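Two proteins, back to back. First:
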Amino acid sequence: MNPGVGEEAGTTTRTLIEALKSTPAILALVLFNLAFMALVAYIQATNSTRWHELMQQTLQQCGPKT
């Protein structure tokens, strides 16, 4: 029986962690980069929401008066 996608991903992750145990500095850098990318994605998402609200407010104030 063929393993599922989840099982394959788990096996690959375990193998990667085992290989990086001999170089903890590289493992730390990989983890830092993943955390940094998540932080940047969060900042971009919140900035997008803020920008959308600002544009809606600007259009509302500068649009034609009814």
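And the second protein:
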Amino acid sequence: MGGQLSKQELYGALENNLANANISFLAKSDEDDALDVFANAFKEDEIYNWVAQLDNEDLDRDQKMFTLSRVLHVYANHRLIVRTRGVALGARCRDNKLVGCMSIAPSLCVNERIIDAITVWRVGGLPPMCTKVKKERQNTVRLHVSA
């Protein structure tokens, strides 16, 4: 034990232990469902809400938070779901609907490459926080999440 874990070693170890579980590796075709699961799981997270800086009275808050969360998870998980930098696992219910996900990157794949960022921008687009809006009641600039 020791050293860095490769993607192949991680995949092999997980594959051996998943045979009897209701958990499976996600395929590229599962990406949209997985991103929706991640987005729903994190849209109420305090960090995500801090990043969005939305007013609680905003009528479109739920949709805006979902959109922001989904885009952030494209950045975080795309390369793992399509297995270029790690793996993603999914739990399914009886009707085969994806109800939970987890992504894992081996220690050997921690360094980001510029091509990874370009690929993710192409797949997920830029984050929805691209316009700055001046808040009247504060003397600061905040990010605006558009629906």
